[in-house]
Fold these 4 entries.
Entry 1:
Amino acid sequence: MPYFKTSQEWLDLSVALLEARPSQTRVTAKYSIKPVKPRKADPSSTSADESSSPSDPKPPRGSLVLKTYDPVSGVALKYRTTKAAEVTRLMYAAMGRLGRAQAGVQDVPEETMQDADAVETPQGEQTPTQQTQQQGAAGGGGGGKKKKKGKK
Amino acid sequence: MASAHLSQDEFFDKLGHLFNHRKGSDHGAIYLTQKRLTYDPSEKSTMAKLFPDLLPNKPLPIIVRATNGKSKRDRSDKDKLSTVVEPHELEAFYVRYADVCKAGMGALKPRDKKKSKAKAKKKKATA
C-alpha cells in the first residue's frame, strides 16, 4: 500500500473514508524504532540525502506511521514521517479531527459560520464579501486543521 | 486480557511509561489506535447492529488503545491500555495526547536547524 506524500492528503482522504464508514474504520499511529544498519563507506551511495558518516554509531532511528484502515472494504491509507516537528500537528490536529469524525461530533462547520456572519452583517454596509469569507474561515478552522505547512 | 478501560489520567500515565520503556532500547514499536466505540451490551435493536453506520444521531464515544505490539511468543510482555473518550472530552484529550506523544517519541529527527548548521560547518571545514 503506497504512502501519501503529504499529511494533508492523507487527512483529507481519511476524513472521507471515515464519513463513508464511521463505525468500522480505525486509525492507528505506529511509532517504531529501528537500529540503523552500519553502512559501508561509499561515496557514490544512492541515498546521499542523509549526512552519513559511517564511523560514528548512529542513534536508532524512529518513525511514525499513521494508518487509516477500514477492515470491511480493505482500504488502508498511510502516511509516514520521521520528523519530530510533525508529531504535535499530526497527533493533535489530524488525529483530533479524525477522532471527532469517529465520535460523530460535528466539526465546526464553516458554512454556518459564514451564515452567521452574513446575518450579522447588514446588507447595505460596504463590506466586501471576501472579508466576511475570510472571517468565517478563520473562525471555523478550530482545531488547527487548516494549518498547512510547506514541507518535503 | 479483558482489562477494564482506564481513566484518562491513568491512561496517560501508563502511556508515558510505555514510551519511556521504549526509550532505552534500539528497536520496538508502540501502536496507538482509535475507533468509534459502538459496543453496547444493552443495545437491543438489530437495526443498529446490522447497520452501525446509520446510527449516529447522537455523538458516540471513541475508544483509544495503546499497545507495545508484543504478541505471539512475547505475549507475556504485552502491555495493553485502553480508555474511552466521551465526545465532550475530545478536545482536552487530544491536547494531552499530543503532549505525551511528543514527549515519548524521542527517536524522531529533531528540527533541521542543527543539521543544516552542522552541514554548513562541514562544508566550511572541507572548503
Note: Chain B has one domain: 8-126.
Entry 2:
Amino acid sequence: MRLLNLLKIATKAIVLNKTRTLLTMLGIIIGVASVIAMLAIGEGSKESIRTTISAMGSNMITIRPGADDRGPARGSGGDVQTLTLDDYEVIKEEATTLSYITPVVNGGGQVINGSNNWPTTIYGVNPDYLNIKVVDLQSGSMFTDAEVKSASKVALIGQTVVDNVFPDGQEPVGQMIRFDNIPFKVIGVLEEKGENTFGQDQDDVVIAPYTTVQKRILAIDYLNQVMASAVSEDDAPEAVTQVTEILRSQHKLLESEDDDFTVRSMEELISTFSSTSEMLTILLVAVASISLLIGGIGIMNIMYVSVKERTKEIGLRMAVGGKGSDILLQFLIEAILISITGGLLGVLLGLGATVFIEKFLNWPTSVALYSIVISFAVCAVTGIFFGWYPARKASALDPITALRYE
Amino acid sequence: MSKEIIKIEDLKREFTMGTETVHALRGISFSIKEGEFVTIMGSSGSGKSTMLNILGCLDQPTSGLYKIDGVSVKDLNRNQLATIRNEKIGFIFQSYNLLARTSAIENVELPLLYNSKVTSEERRKRAIKALEMVGLGDRLHHTPSQLSGGQQQRVAIARSLVNNPVMILADEATGNLDTRTSYEIMSLFQELNKKGITITFVTHEPDIATFSSRTVVLKDGAIMQDYLNHNVQSAAAELAKLPKQDD
C-alpha cells in the first residue's frame, strides 16, 4: 500500500516533467541501445564464421607439413616437403576414426579455352574430396579411382571458372580445356558455393586427380596437405590425436622433437576465428558501456538538481506526514523508473538499430537474449546506484528549513 | 469542560549560534481546548515561529512539556513526529505550498498518501468532501495556476482538513491575500470553527485576532498576554461592510 502510493507519487513527478525526463533518459537509451547493437554485431559475425566453417565440413581435418606457428599470419606450409604420399597411405591404413581421406596438391595457373582464359588454382585430389568438403556436382560426374591411378587428364571446374572460360553459355562437360599447357577433359561442374567469410571465392577452382597434378603440372612428389574427415563431429578431436600419433611414428620423431606437421580440425579453426571476433565484441561493448555509465551520471545529475528544485515540495511532504524513508523511496523510485523506462526504450532502439544494420549494411547480426537481460539489469542497478545519493540528500532535509526554502 | 488538545508547561527552546545561546522560548505554559480558535500574535523575534514549529511537531522543545492529544512530543523520533503530523495536525501556510501542475483533488489527497491505513477510494471520497467543505466542489480538477490566491488557500485548507486533524495550524494564512479575500478566508475559518474544529492561527496582524475567540501574545520568548475575546467579530459581516468591487 505504502509502496504503491509512493510509486504513484513518483510516476506523477516524472509525468509532470516529460521533456526533462526524456532528456535524462537519452543517455541511458543510447547506452543500452549501443550495447545491444554491438553485442548483436559481435554475435552475428561469430555465428556467420561458424556457419561458413561448418559448411566447409565440420568433420574436416587438415594435415599440413611444417610446424604449427599459430598466429594471424601463418605461413602456407606449401614449401615444406615433409608430407608425402607414404604418410597419406599410412594414415589411411591405420587411422580408425576417419571416414574419408585425400591427398591434396595445389598450384596456380591459367585455364584456357580457345580465346578465353582465367587465372585459377588447381587442386589435385582423390574422389573422397567431394565428401570431405561436402560439395555436390551440378552436372557430369567425379573421376574414378582408376582415373586417379592412371593419372588421367580429366577435371571438374567451379562455377567461376565456367563463367570465365565458357562465357557463351556452352555446356562445359565434355569440352576440352587447357590448364597451363596440359589439356584436360571437363567431366563435371561443381555446385556453386559462393564466397566464404574470409572473402575467398570457393567456386574459383579446378579439380583433377592428384596424380595428374603432381606429375604433369607441378612435377613434385610431396603433398601440400592431406584432408580427411572424421567419422563424426564428436570424433574430430580423437581423430586429431590419432593422426598426430601415426605421423610422429611415421616421421620417427623423438619424444623431445616437435611435430613437423600440423593437424587441425575445423572445430579448432572455428574457435581461433571466434576468439578474434570475441575480442572485437568485448572492445565494442566496453565502449558502449561507457555511454551507459555516462547515462547513469546524467540521471544522478538531474535527480540532484530535482532535489534542490523541489526542496519546498519535500518540506511540504514532510510537514503533512511524509517520513524520511518515504521521501528517500520516492526519489529512488523516480530514478529507477527513469532508468528502467530508458532501458526499455534503449532495448527497442537497439533492436531497431540491429535490424537496420542487418538490412542496410548487410552485416550479419544476432540478438542474444542475454544482452537484453544484462543491459536491462545494468539499467536498474544504475538507477539505484545513481539515484541513491540525491534521494538520501532529500530524505535528510530538515522539514523547517525545507519549508522556508525559496 | 472540554478536552485539552494542547498542553504546554514551562516550554523552553534554545538555539546555539556559534558560541552564543539564543533563548527563543523562555518557559511558556498554556493549553488549548477542543473547539477553541486561538491566535498567537507577536512581532518578529518574539518566538512566534519557534512556537509554531513546536506546535506543528516540526521541532522539539529543549525542555518542558508539550502534549498534543495526550501524546508527549518531547521523546519522539523523526518518524514518530511525522506520524503525529500526519494524523493530528493540519498545516496551512502563508504561500499555500500547493504542488504545481497538480489538480486540487490530488493536492488535497497528499496527506492521506502517507497514511497507509486509508484506501484509495476512501482517500478520494474524503478529498472531495474536504473540497466541498471549503466551497470548491466544482473545482476538483483545476490546477493551482488555474485558481486565484483565495481559491488556492481554500485548497490548502481542504488539504489540512482531509486527515481529520485534532487541530488546524495556520501560519500567516492570510498574509498573501488582499483584505477582501482574507476576510473570506477568515469567515471560512470561523465556519469551520463553529463545526467544532480547533484552530491555532499564528499571525502578526492585530485585526485577524479580532475574529478569534482567544489571543496569546508573545514577546521576547514569553507570554505577554493571554486573553479571551468576548466580542468576536464576524468576518462575514466585515466582508459585507467592505465597499463593493467593480468586476
Note: Residues 4-241 of chain B form a domain with the Rossmann fold fold (CATH 3.40.50.300).
Entry 3:
Amino acid sequence: MSIELKTLTKSYKKNLALDRVSLTIEKGTICGLLGRNGAGKTTLVNLVGNRDFPTFGEVLLDGVNVRENDKALKKIYCMGADDLIPVNMKIKEVVSSMRYFYKSADLNYAEKLCKDFRLDMTKRLSQLSTGYRTIAKVIFAMASGADYIFLDEPTLGLDANHRELLYRLILERFEETEAAFVISTHLIDECAGLFERCFILREGTLIADEDSETLRSSAFVVDGKTEQVLLFTSGMEVISRSELGTLSSACVKGKPGNVPAGLEISKPSLQQLLIAMTADEKRG
Amino acid sequence: MNDFIGFALKSRTGLIRFVLMMCGVFGGIFFFYLIMLIALVLDGSIGKVDIPFMGSGGIILSGVCFASSADRLIRMGVNCGVSRKTILKGLAAAVPVYAAVSAAMTALAELIAELVYQLFGLKLLGFGHELAEYFLWEIKDNWRMRVYGCCAVFMLTLFALAAGLMFVGGKMHSRRRGITAAAVTVFGYWVFSVNLDYDGWLYDLLERSAVATNPEYFAWQFDNLPSLFFTQCELLALTLVGVYLLYGIFAVMLRNAPIRGRETG
C-alpha cells in the first residue's frame, strides 16, 4: 500500500509552488517533509488531501487517483497548519463529527490524548492558545484512524515538554496502527530520530528523496583553515560553504577519502544537511 | 454520500445547530415585536393599526443561518476527506429538509406572533395572519390559498437557502466574491418575492408581457381560477427557477474552489 505522487505541479498565476514532484510514501513509514518556508510543503499536503487541485500531475493511492475520490480520501487525513476546522467549534464537537467520516475513528483514544495533553474538550478552538490549537489538530489527526496521516507543522507553538510527549505518542501510535506519518516541520534535529525517509523540497522542486541514514551518509562536513579546505574540496561537489575569520567549513557531497592532517571530518546532522542543500546561492 | 448527509442532518454541527440559530433569530424578531407591542400600548394605538410581519426577514435570516451551517459542513467535510462532488450531492439532498424545517418554523413563529397580537386587538399583515384566519375561521373556503401560501413560504425559504449556498461557494474563492454573490442573491430575492407583494415591477412586467402574448389563455385562467392561485403558481415557478440557477452557480463555484482555511481571501 502506498501513496504515489506523479509529476505533481501546482502554479498560482505566475508563481510555481510545486514543480513536477514525484515521490512514493509507503504505508508503515514515518517520513519527513522538509524544506524552507515557501518551499511547497503545505501546497503538497493540500493537494494530497484534495483541498486544492494540481495544475498538472496526480496523486495515486494504491494506483487509484485520489482526486474527488471519497473512498481513497477516507484513508488520508491531512492536518493543516491553517484553520480549516471552524475555530468556533468545540473540541468534543469536532471529535464526535469525525465518526461520520472515518469509520475507524477512535474517540476514546482522542479523549485519552486530551487527558495526556491536559486539553479541555469542552473548549472551542478559538479559546485555545496557538500551542493547544496545534495539539487539538494533531489529536484529530491521530484519532482519525486513517492509513496515511499528514501532519503539517505539528509542533507549531508547542513547548519542549509537549513536543517530547508528541514524539512519543506518534511513535506509539505508529507501532499500534502501522499508519504512514508524513511530518512537515522546521524542528528537524528534534524529529530526525523519527524519520525513516526524508523528502526535501526546494522552491517547489524535490531535491532529495532518500532514507534518513543514506541521506546523512551521502555528505560530510569538513572544517579547517580556509586554504586547506579550499584545496581539499577542489573538484568536489560542495553543497555549502561558510567562513569565520581564517577558518572555513564546507558541506560536501560524497565520501571524504584520504583526509590531510589539520582538517576535521564529521557527519552532518539532518538539519545541517538541509540548511546546506536549501541555502540561498548568494549566501551559499 | 450517506456519511455527509448524515452529518448534515443528524450531527450537532448540522441541522441541530441550524434550528438553534433559527430559534435565536425568531427570538430576536419576537423581542422586536414585543417592544413594538409595548410601544403601541403606551401610544394608545391598540386596536387601531395593522402591522406587517417581517416573515421575509425571517426567511432571509434563515438563508444567513444556513450559509453559516453550510460553511461549517463544507469545511469539516473537506477536512475529513469528502469530495466536492459528494458535498454538492449531499447539500442538494439536505437543502429541502432545512427549507422545510425553517419554513415550518417561520409559519409557526408568524402564527404565534399573530395570536399574541390578536389578544391586544391588533393584527400582523403577513402569512401568519392568513394562517390564523384559515385555521380559526375560514378553513373550508380557502384551502387553495392556504396550500399555496405554505408552498410559497417553503419555496422562498429554498431560495434564501440557495442564496446562502451561493454566498458560501463565493466565499471559498474569496470573501469579496462571497459578499458580491450574497448581494446579488438578496437583490434577486427582493425582485422575485418580497417585491411581488408590493406591485413589484418584475412581476408586473412578466404578467403584462405574458398576458399580451397569450390573451386567450390568460382570459381563461382569470375566469376559471382564483387570481391568487395564478399568482402563487407563477411565484412558485419563478422561485424554483431562481433556486436552480443559484444552486447551479454554487455548484460551479465549489467544484473548482480550493479550500485553504483562513488563507482564502
Note: Chain A touches chain B through 32 residues (CB under 8 Å).
Entry 4:
Amino acid sequence: MRAIVTIGFKEGVLDPEAVAIGRALAGLGFAEVQAVRRRKVIELELAGEDPEAASARVEAMCEQLLANPVIERWTVEIVEGG
Amino acid sequence: MRAAVITFPGSNCDRDLAVAMETCFGRPVARVWHADSELPPVDLVGLPGGFSWGDYLRSGAIAARAPIMAAVRRHAERGGYVLGICNGFQILTEAGLLPGALIRNAGLRFVCRPVRLSVVNRNTPFTAAYGAEPITIPVAHHDGNYVIDPEGLARLEGEGRIAFRYLDNPNGSTADIAGVLDARGRVLGLMPHPERAVEPLLGGVDGRPLFASLLSAIDGGGRP
C-alpha cells in the first residue's frame, strides 16, 4: 500500500517562493498566470492491508511531523496495491 | 546560574553560545547531546543556531522531535528558562513551545548582517538590562520570516510577548517581529544572534545585556 501526502501552506500564508515563481513566469511572457501555489508531495510505502487504518496512521504522521499544522494543510491519498 | 546548551546534528553556534554564556555568567556551561533524554539540573537551556538535520522537511522540524526535546518541554513546564536563537527559535516553534512559524525570507535570500532592533518589552527576564535605545545584533538566516495568524498576533501584542522588533525588517517577518516569548515569559526565541555580540573585537556587545538580564533574573538581585 502507498500513501501520497500532499502538503501546502494554508490560505493566508504568503509563500515568497510561489510569488517568485509567478514573477519569473510573467517575465517569460506567461501573462495568464494569476496565482501560484507550491505544494510538496511525500510518498510512503506502507505495510498492512487496511486502507482506513493506514489513512488514520498517516494523518497522525502529518500532525506529528510531516506537516506543521500552524501554517500548513495536507491531503492523504491511499493507493492500494501500488 | 546553571545553564546547558544542546547540540543537534548540524548545530553550528552551540560552542559560540556556550562561550558567550560562560563569559557573561562566569560559570561553566553544560553541553548536552540531542539524543540524551535527560537534562542536567539547570536553570537555563540554550538551543543554538545552525542547520539541524540540514533543514530537511522544515527548519527545526526534526530537531523539535529529538529525544532531548521532551526534557526541554518538561523544563519549560516547570518554569525553567529556555533561550532559542535562530535555528533554536525555529525548533521552539516547531515544538509548539512558542506560537507561530518561521518560513523562507520574503526576499528569498540568505540574510547575513547586523540589524537594528528595538527592545519592545524591557520588563522580561531576558531584556531587563537593556535601555530604551535601539540595539544592533547580527542575523544570519534563510528562514526568518515569522508568520502568525491575526488572533495570535493580537495575543502576543496584548500580553507584551513581543520581545524584539526589527527596525529595518530583513525578512518579511509579520509585524517586524524578531523575538517572542511564551505565555509565562520564561521561553524566548529570536532570530538575531546575541551570542555573536558579546565581544567588542567581534563588532559589538549589544548581546551582553540579554545574558546579564538572565543572570540577574535567575541569581537574584534583579528585576523579574
Note: The first helix of chain B runs from residue 14 to 25.
